[in-house]
């Protein structure tokens, strides 16, 4: 696993001030990846939209839940602690279909919150929603589930795929009510400024649309300038 150097705290805080659609638009202005990559699909949804934005470095793991197995939970704790804080745990459920047993509930959320994790992202299920929400621990999942079944950690610290998105250990994750976004580390310090410019262009366009100066014949040109 590559060594991860954390960004300055003020950069992370600046990223946290923007929602995922705005940051996604800002990333597009750098042309560092295709526009249809870098985010999870709708198989992973935000369980607690009111908790706002989550930003952290990805610790990764895989799980199974349909049969007994030895859990590598201690390896995951070690992996988490090897990364800079704040941290986000990204867990791929290897079952087909995923979600038969929930890793994430009140106990695990308390453990990983103590390990300075902001929340968890999984293509599987989660439970104890009221207790975890009260804790302020973010959960992004396929949906809620009843049982933990025989859930156990299979691996820790390897790349995982969740919601069609491949996440490597140490990747910078930004997530909110809209979904999960990967932030390219190389441009992360420049993204808050780019996001502000995106917002200003959009607001300038929207003010024109709502003003007495709106002219349908100029719509295509004004829309082009707003992008």
What would you note in describing this structure?
With 227 residues, the protein is α/β, with parallel strands linked by helices. It has helices at 9-16, 20-28, 73-81, 106-114, 129-135, 191-209, 219-226; strands at 45-46, 54-64, 87-93, 117-122, 125-126, 138-141, 143-144, 152-156, 160-162, 165-167, 172-176, 179-183. α2 (20-28) packs across α6 (191-209) and α6 runs antiparallel to α7.
The overall pLDDT, averaged over residues, is 95
The backbone outline, from C-alpha atoms, is elongated
Rg calc? 19 Å
Largest pleated sheet: 8 strands, mixed
Structural class: alpha/beta
Query: How far apart are the first and last residues' alpha carbons, in Å?
Result: 38 Å
Number of strands: 12
Strand content: 15-25%
Helicity, as a percent range: 25-40%
Low-pLDDT ranges: none
SSE succession = HHEEHEHEEHEEEEEEEHH
Distinct helical segment count: 7
Give structural attributes.
227 residues, alpha/beta, 8-stranded mixed beta sheet, two-stranded parallel ribbon, 12 strands, elongated
